[in-house]
Amino acid sequence: MEEFDNKDLEKKDKNLVFGQQVKAGKRVYFIDVRATNKGDYYLSITESRKKIAHDGKMVFEKSKVFLYKEDFEKFLNSLNEAVDYIKKEQPFDPAEYAERRKQYIEERNLNNPNYDGNSGANYKEVSFDDLG
Is residue 36 within 8 Å of residue 12, measured between CB atoms? Predict the structure, then answer.
């Protein structure tokens, strides 16, 4: 996790008390402690995902969860149980993950022959001699 201390962000968002970022591929999770107008703290968890819009521009889709102090214990207990269940039933295997990722990329490239990994941009190599 990456803690951040951004003065510009604090000026824009007076309610932000503390924050961390978790970068995970095309996703970034923001885990923020915020204050209500009365000064009570709560947790704001935001998932931000990079997407390419229909017009080819990069956009970010965001999903948020707000969690209040009185719910922390119940939430953490349920979260830990769910994570433990997944770890038990489907342990993480880096080799399997790498293979599944490779298959996904191959399928994406087969299904979209124009995909070149550059946000849909097609580049042509030009020589200075071609410019005259």
Answer: no
pTM score:
0.61
- The domain limits of the chain are 2-112
Query: What does the CA dihedral 69, 71, 73, 75 come to, rounded to 10 degrees?
Result: -130
Which tokens is 49 given? 């995902």
What's the CATH code, domain 2-112?
3.10.450.700
Q: How confident is the model over 35-66, as pLDDT tens digits?
A: 999 999 999 999 999 888 888 888 889 999 99
Q: Tens of pLDDT along 14-28?
A: 799 999 999 988 889
Q: Are 34 and 51 in contact (CB under 8 A)?
A: no
Residue type, 84: D
In the chain, alpha helices (H): 7-12, 72-89, 94-111
Judging by DSSP bridges, how do beta strands 27-35 and 41-52 pair with one another? antiparallel
